[in-house]
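Internal ticket #5521
Category: modeling
Description: The requester needs a full-assembly model to guide mutagenesis choices. All entity lines are attached below as received. Residue total reported by intake: 522.
Assigned to: D.W.
Attached entities:
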Amino acid sequence: MKHRGTKYSGFKVIKEALTGHKGWKPVWRTPRPKSEYDVIIVGGGGHGLATAYYLAKEFGITNVAVLEKGWIGSGNVGRNTTIVRSNYLLPGNEPFYEFSMKLWENLEQDFNYNAMVSQRGILNLFHNDAGRDAYARRGNAMILAGADAVLLDQDGVREMYPCLDFENARFPIKGGLLQPRGGTVRHDAVAWGYARGADNRGVDIIQNCEVTGMVIENGICRGVETSQGIIKAKKIAVCVAGSSSRVMSMAGMRLPIESHVLQAFVSEGLKPILPGVVTFGAGHFYVSQSDKGGLVFGGDIDGYNSYAQRGNLPVVEDVCEGGMALMPMIGRARLLRMWGGVMDMSMDGSPFIDKTHIDGLYFNGGWCYGGFKATPASGWCYAHLLAKDEPHPVATEYRLDRFKRGAMIDEKGMGAQPNLH
Amino acid sequence: MIIHHPLLGPRDASEFVYKGDASLIDRPDWKADNAADLFHDYLYLRDNPAGEHCELWYHEQGDRSWLVVTRNTLTHDITNVELARDVALAKQAKKSGRGEK
């Protein structure tokens, strides 16, 4: 289908600047839901909007509705710390995340929207020989899957990040694994860009429409009950991240998922100090610097079941201790904002993109705290599954029955204990 | 969060380690014909409710007792705390039909 909306360009910006910016229009409609669709996507976050976009653009399915309880992008796609990377180890994961990385690299041209994709590099620090070996292995696995990886020694890290504390008594920095193609993306713009692209191709984005029940007859899902009435569809595709268990319980399903809260933080704006993303796994801390200058950082999940979208102070202290250990200069910066999001923590730390045992009902979730980087590939692979009823080649392992088959994708080797992933 | 320990009084939640849903106390019968399925569900599937949730907390930085904490996952309010031992024994008594008088 032809792109219906205004095409954005430098020329368009200049033209609008000279004519009082009167030509800008809302980039998606506010339609009333139709009584029936080919596909209903439950959840208007990054993954849901990406699924709608790729369904319309790549698979030609445009009779689609995205139902969102609040406003689009109000959940985790606007709460994460904007990092994109494909530095995974296991064969069930790495090709998928590298597919996502390649989609990020061409995203703005593809959906004609400025998402501020910035490949500023992501560096994972190590502190001893064992850590170095593990990252050398990971880097090799990444290269085998077509990604990029560079193992840096201490001098290599010092050259990029002289502000770090290399002589920390407990965790002296000995080097790091750098993925130069990793980086950050403006997360809200990802939701808006996908929404605009989907809407332009005929997808109905219906906000303030909460799904309150599933219409299931003889083991077939035929639609959803919503706050705006019953809406029927041939296929119902759920992707609601932290609310996965709540929504799927409407279909009588129990999931291998616990919902946990993860906090994130932004400091006041500072002069440029961090050119890329740095992760300090041993200290439960990672940080990057936004284009506005704020240090954007975070750490581990709080570690208990929560739907509250806010965390508690002990984890704030833990994260800030990690920051002080890594870069003591952070102690002089004031904290500007902090917030929480609800993570759908799966039992092995890896996600699901699968059909359910109920015909017509599909599930995408279990992204833990790593869903943002997966957004393009998750949308593409979910759209592929919905359009063709078979998994995309890079997402064949993300099955709901993998625990039963003993085919877990346990990146961290933690076992069935979600708060350890 | 403050957890009101039945023996030690109010303690900060950071002294505890979180395990998960308190139904993990009830291990399936390993002799059942469908034991593999029962253990799959026991180990991997969760109710994960939004609202009241009974869960296991371990007082690692304290007296090392296991507690069953009833907590609201939407507000983090804690409404009840019991020793896991008491909960398990009460369940056992109920199962064997003896019931405390």
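Resolution: model delivered.
Comment from assignee: Residues 29 and 35 of chain B are 7 Å apart (CA to CA).
Ticket closed.
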